[in-house]
Design goal:
Blueprint (H helix, E strand, L loop, with lengths): L1 H8 L22 E8 L5 E7 L8 E3 L5 H4 L10 E6 L3 H10 L4 E8 L2 E7 L5 E6 L2
Parallel strand pairs: 4-7
Antiparallel strand pairs: 1-2, 2-3, 5-6, 6-7
Length: 134
């Protein structure tokens, strides 16, 4: 659910600071850990937004691109390679939930020596490995 829910948590449209709603099925606002105003080093406004899956201790800090240079590489931070990894205890159940929620999988599930893996794309176009036991 994390990848699909990130689009609901993301608090801005791609071109402004207009807040987006959080209305996707299975995306609870309780997953929003923090949403606080902050400032850049040069005094401009930004937000500090941290999200995490239900029951998790580790979260993700979501940050909007700051300027044209950063915006130009959104979705390509890992140069077309998988750059993020989501390890789960139940691969098949998580894969089915993500696929059922409309998450786009770039590569189908396969079995590797380290377990089951499938590659999915987040809302910015970054590639993630969904990894679980075989």
């Amino acid at each position: 659910m994390l990848a699909r829910c990130m689009s609901a948590w993301w608090p801005w449209s791609s071109t402004s600071t207009t807040r987006r709603s959080s209305s996707l099925p299975g995306c609870s606002v309780s997953d929003l850990v923090e949403d606080s105003p902050a400032e850049t080093n040069d005094g401009r406004q930004k937000r500090w937004v941290v999200v995490r899956p239900p029951g998790a201790e580790t979260g993700l800090l979501l940050a909007r691109a700051d300027g044209a240079g950063q915006a130009a590489v959104v979705g390509r931070q890992a140069a077309g390679r998988v750059g993020f990894f989501l390890r789960v205890d139940d691969f098949e159940a998580t894969y089915q939930r993500l696929a059922g929620a409309g998450v786009e999988f770039a590569r189908p599930p396969r079995t590797e020596p380290y377990g089951r893996v499938a590659v999915f794309t987040d809302i910015a176009g970054n590639l993630w490995d969904l990894i679980g036991p075989a």
